[in-house]
Specification:
single chain; 403 residues; mainly alpha; three-stranded antiparallel β-sheet; two-stranded antiparallel sheet; globular
Length: 403
């Protein structure tokens, strides 16, 4: 740890991570203004600072937790799937993306961050989402509505950010601020008003994107946050459930017809022509898993070409869990899901409910999206890892102070 007198300074990588999380919501708009991804460059810089922290601040003391070890084993296993993968072009393309994101997670996971550093990173994530909402609200041309179903899109040059990805990014800030709003009983009214406006803005924009998975994830986040202190929040849970049931039909009526159709009961239960292809894709992908493939999968990146074989007009599994078992089988899934579940369990034990809620929301999005190539998934993973590490560091510091 870098020190100045008796004051502990943050790891240098904390500054890089803070900038990374502030810029995360602007990944696609920033990528559209140059030939290089600015967020990728910031991520590389943060990784460089993390290496420097491991050498200087921690004196080559690498923190090899089960998260680090299992993730290393997983990415090595993913690389070895090239041996039996029949889709080498897809393997080469996707595995490199998995590797880049995974390396950043591993480096961050080996550093013993403090609680103060964890809060700095968390506040940076909240700030980034807040700036994104201001950008979408006040900057002309920042957003547009699609011709199909009138869904809100974040403009990125001649392209746009996927509506569900936009919703997933908003959920990161929503989870942290919602937890603060519910649990900060003594905060000043003006700060609570800002937090309430922030959460309302997140829900409004998630609704506008037409992301049904985003709304489901937001509800899961709310449930996790309230369940964190269930005795005090039981009445709030019941009142909220009643409120949702009562006002839902009226809110739907206020939306444009095309967008409202996405939130109908038929659409939410998969009984529309739009939802049917996903069910067909999922059934087709799972139907390919036979014999040894159940254990080892078809190889990294294989879910995309197999999806095209199952359903010609689509190249995405639209389900993280099914995509993972198709690519890596039970063995690979067991590794990565053990890492995620382990962090979730530790967050619950440490009562970092806000971070747990964000992680749960992201994993719910995985029921309808492919996550491994997305920055918001790895951002949620890094946030969870930093908080778990910070809790352990705080525990060790307390032991040393008591000796």
């Amino acid at each position: 740890m870098f020190t100045l007198g008796n004051h502990k300074l943050m790891h240098l990588s904390t500054y890089g991570l803070a900038l990374f999380f502030i810029l995360l919501p602007f990944e696609y708009p920033l990528a559209a203004i140059g030939t290089q991804s600015i967020l990728m460059l910031v991520g590389v810089a943060a990784m460089g600072l993390a290496v420097l922290d491991l050498i200087v601040a921690q004196n080559f003391k690498f923190h090899f937790s089960h998260r680090v070890v299992l993730t290393i084993i997983w990415i090595v296993y993913a690389g070895l799937t090239a041996i039996w993968c029949n889709y080498q072009a897809a393997y080469s393309y996707f595995y490199m993306m998995y590797l880049r994101n995974c390396l950043m997670f591993i480096l961050i996971a080996m550093i013993d961050y403090s609680r103060r550093e964890a809060f700095v990173v968390k506040k940076s994530a909240v700030l980034g989402v807040g700036l994104l909402m201001l950008y979408m609200t006040f900057v002309p041309g920042a957003t547009r509505y699609s011709n199909y179903q009138h869904r809100l899109e974040l403009v990125a040059g001649n392209s746009n950010l996927d509506e569900n990805y936009l919703a997933a990014i908003l959920l990161i800030g929503f989870g942290f601020v919602l937890y603060w709003l519910i649990n900060q009983k003594t905060a000043k009214l003006k700060f609570k008003a800002i937090a309430l406006l922030y959460c309302a803005g997140c829900i409004y924009y998630i609704f506008a994107t037409g992301s049904r998975s985003g709304l489901i994830a937001a509800m899961i986040i709310l449930i996790v946050v309230l369940a964190g202190n269930i005795k005090k929040n039981t009445l709030a849970v019941l009142m909220l459930a009643l409120l949702v049931i009562v006002i839902y039909p009226y809110v739907i009526e206020l939306l444009p017809a095309d967008l409202a159709s996405r939130y109908s009961i038929a659409a939410l239960t998969g009984n529309t022509s739009e939802s049917s292809p996903r069910l067909y894709i999922w059934a087709g992908l799972l139907g390919r898993l036979k014999g040894i493939r159940v254990l080892i999968g078809f190889g990294a990146g294989s879910s995309a070409p197999i999806t095209r074989e199952v359903y010609v007009n689509n190249a995405a599994a639209h389900n993280f869990y099914i995509g993972q078992i198709v690519e890596f089988g039970i063995i690979g899934c067991g590794l990565i899901f053990t890492v995620i579940a382990g962090m979730g369990k530790q967050l619950l034990r440490n009562k970092d409910i806000d971070c747990l809620a964000v992680l749960c929301g992201t994993m719910v999005m995985g029921m309808f999206l492919d996550l491994l190539t997305t920055k918001f998934f790895w951002a949620s993973m890094m946030l969870a890892c930093i908080f778990v590490s910070a809790s352990k560091s705080e525990y060790i510091d307390n032991l040393e102070e008591n000796e």
